[in-house]
TrEMBL record:
Signal peptide: none
Name the UniProt record assigns to this protein: PLDX1 protein
Location in the cell: Membrane
InterPro entries linked: PLXDC (IPR031152)
Top-level taxon of origin: Eukaryota
Keywords: Membrane, Signal, Transmembrane, Transmembrane helix
Gene name, Swiss-Prot/TrEMBL: Plxdc1
Any one of the GO CC terms: membrane
Signal in keyword set: yes
Membrane topology: Single-pass type I membrane protein
Organism per entry: Rhadina sibilatrix
Length: 171
């Protein structure tokens, strides 16, 4: 994609294992998904690293539950992830989120400057990813779960509630 797309994919991802995979290498390689309304699962099945097919095939998946829980499952990881080269593509696993803001450029008034703000990242220790293992992310409670100011203020969450003028309620 374009520069914006590449910058956003570097900062916005849910990645059980990001590397230079080539799903078209083998007719047995697939990337499949399932959505049953309560869980969305993506599975990379028998995929190979581009140019490193002799390392063997990888099978892993990401399951996104409607409750916010995320599970990464690793069925086949034929080599230690630390041995995967990052020269052609980043090698990482975890979650990251960001947003982009278009600001007027001070040099050219009719143009806009794009700024990407990464505000949260959870990186997995890739040395711990191995065959027949899993990682589970469980969301922490937030003030958005409360239906009233009183419930939020009296909860045991450690957030500092404040008034939101847009929603006309405390958050």
């Amino acid at each position: 994609g374009d520069v914006i797309h590449r910058m956003l994919t570097a900062t916005q991802y849910i990645a059980p294992l990001m590397a230079n995979f080539n799903p078209s290498y083998s007719h047995n390689s697939t990337v499949q998904y399932l959505d049953n309304g309560t869980v969305f699962v993506v599975q990379w099945d028998k995929v190979y690293l581009q140019g490193k097919e002799d390392m063997g095939s990888f099978t892993f998946q990401a399951a996104l539950h409607s409750s916010g829980r995320i599970v990464f499952g690793y069925k086949e990881i034929p080599v230690p992830v630390l041995q995967i080269s990052a020269s052609q593509h980043p090698v990482k696993a975890g979650l990251s989120d960001a947003f982009m803001v278009l600001n007027p450029s001070p040099d050219v008034p009719e143009s806009r400057r794009r700024t990407i703000y990464e505000y949260h990242r959870v990186e997995l220790d890739t040395s711990r990813i191995s065959s027949l293992s899993a990682v589970e992310f469980t969301p922490l409670p937030t003030c958005l779960q409360h239906q009233s100011c009183e419930m939020c203020v009296s909860s045991e969450l450690t957030f500092n509630c404040s008034w939101c003028h847009v929603l006309q309620r405390y958050l």
